[in-house]
Every structure is written in C-alpha cells, then in structure tokens.
Amino acid sequence: MAADQILDEATEVHPIKTGPAIVVRASNVKKSFGRNEVLKGINLEVHRGKVVVILGPSGSGKSTLLRTINHLESIDSGSIQVDGVQIGYVEKNGRLEEAPYPVLAQQRRRIGMVFQSFNLFPHMTVLENVMEAPVHVHGEDPEIVRKRALKLLKRVGLLEKAGEYPRRLSGGQQQRVAIARALCIQPDLLLFDEPTSALDPELVGEVLNTIRDLAKEGFTMVVVTHEIPFSREVADWVVFMADGRVVEEGKPRDVLVNPQQPRTREFLKRYI
C-alpha cells in the first residue's frame, strides 16, 4: 500500500464493519448507589451497524447503563462486553480484577462518548479539543490526527471554528464539536447521553441532523434521548426502561407506535 494511501486511511473515519456481530453484550447488569438499586439485572445487545435508542423517565437508570458500557460507572454484578472484551476488568489467575488505567484506556480506545454537557476543555481551541484524546491518551501522530480532526470539523460544519475557544460557540456548535471529538478516536461504538437535553430548542435540530447522518453511514450507536420522532426515524431497536429494568424493547414501529406495556404507553403519552 502506498504511503499516501496509508495517510488517507489514517485521517478518515468510517464505520467499523469488521469484528464481532454483537458489539455490546450486557448480561444481568446490576448497579446500586448506596441502598438505591439503579440497575436491576439489565440485558442488552447492540449489533454492529445498528442504532439502539434507550428511552425512559428520569431516574429509570438509562444514563447509568450507558456509562457502565465504557466503565465510567463500575457494575456490582453481571457483565458488559464490547467486542468480546469485558470493559474495566482483566483476567488474573482465573478471576476478574479491576483493570489498571493504561489497560482501561486501551479498552476504551474504540468507544466514543458524547455527554449532555459537552465537556469541552475551555482553555483549548476547538481543534485542540478534537485532537486531545488521540494524541495525548492514545499516542497517535499529531500531524495525522490534525488532518483527521480538520476533516471531522468540516464534516460537522465547523471547520471555520477550528481556532475558536468553546465559549465563543453556541451550545449546538459545542455539541457538534463534541461529536467530532468522539469520532476522532475512530470508534467502533458511539455512545450519546441525552445529547440535546442541555440545548435551547432552536439548536436541537442541528445536533440531531449530525447524529442522523452518522446513522445513515452505518455507525454503531447507543443513544439515550427523549426525542421520540428522532427515535422513530433513526433507531433500529428501541429499549424502554423504568425503575432500573427493561420494561419493553423491539423495533420502533412496535415500541413507539403499538407499545404493549402500560408503563411504556404512559410515558409516550407525554411526548406524542
């Protein structure tokens, strides 16, 4: 392969289409904060190239579940595997132990996450924010990452903002930078935690359009959201959670149009 072709591939971000068919497999996941049991035996599968949307009322455990996938929250029991790897743990003498940070960072290498509160570094420019993880966490070549980051900023419509600081951007623009940052690690999996909840209503559309484009390209995604029309359009599979459990799941036309469980119907009445 020619050197310029290798460089082009290193600076492009495409959906990862090789690897296990099931990207995320959560089995009987339980999590408590003190006496408050937040996750009560969750089972979840996310297939490669598919979009899973998780819906539910506040306090249902959906954001906690999302955060356990990349071990931002540890679990009390059960297992969560991404591409067949138990995130946050290593096997030692036949037992699972907490992974040291360098190992955990490597395990997270293929998981990009977009938070509801953007989480951009205020002292860094837009371009520096997008480049931060590949260069300083994963040790990639800065020049290759710079070219990739600029392509991603162009992709989300913010190339002209590369030299700006986050405070100069609208909330919608900051969230699109956060999406570019998540993509810059060339992820196998994208996690979105209420990506529009902190935005003014008029800015929601631009972020949802960006996520919609990623879905069309075939990225594997798990999206926690309250945006029902968006979920109906983009999701391949919808999971409805309440009280730390999966109450109902299925294709969007089944869960969102013809829900079978009273809790699901009650929730949807507020949004439809």
Describe this structure in words.
It is a single chain. The chain is α/β, with parallel strands linked by helices and 272 residues long. The chain has a domain at 48-71 and 106-269: Rossmann fold, CATH 3.40.50.300. It is built from 10 helices and 12 strands. A 6-stranded mixed β-sheet has the order 8-9-10-3-11-12, sandwiched between helices. It has a 4-stranded antiparallel β-sheet with strand order 2-1-4-5, with helices on one face. Strand 1 and strand 2 (36-47) form a beta hairpin. Helix 5 (142-155) packs across helix 6 (171-184) and helix 6 packs parallel to helix 7 (201-217). The longest helix has 17 residues, at 201-217. The protein is globular and about 50 Å long. The termini are far apart. Mean pLDDT is 92; it is low at 1-7.
List the helices and strands and how they pair.
Blueprint: H1 3-11, E1 22-33, E2 36-47, E3 51-55, H2 62-69, E4 77-82, E5 85-86, E6 89-92, E7 95-98, H3 101-107, E8 111-114, H4 126-137, H5 142-155, H6 171-184, E9 189-193, H7 201-217, E10 221-224, H8 228-234, E11 237-242, E12 245-250, H9 252-257, H10 262-269
Parallel strand pairs: 3-10, 3-11, 8-9, 9-10
Antiparallel strand pairs: 1-2, 1-4, 4-5, 6-7, 11-12
Helix pairs in contact: 4-5, 4-6, 5-6, 6-7
SS content category: alpha/beta
| Biggest sheet, spatial arrangement of strands | 8-9-10-3-11-12
- The tally of beta strands, per DSSP, is 12
User: In CATH terms, what is the architecture of one domain?
Assistant: 3-Layer(aba) Sandwich
**Arithmetic mean pLDDT:** 92
Low-confidence stretches: 1-7
Helix amount = 25-40%
Q: What's the helix-strand series?
A: HEEEHEEEEHEHHHEHEHEEHH
According to CATH, what is the topology of one domain? Rossmann fold
CATH superfamily of one domain: P-loop containing nucleotide triphosphate hydrolases
| Coarse shape | globular
Can you summarize the main beta sheet? 6 strands, mixed
Rg, please?
19 Å
Terminal residue distance: 53 Å
What is the CATH C level class of one domain, in words?
Answer: Alpha Beta
Percent strand equals: 25-35%
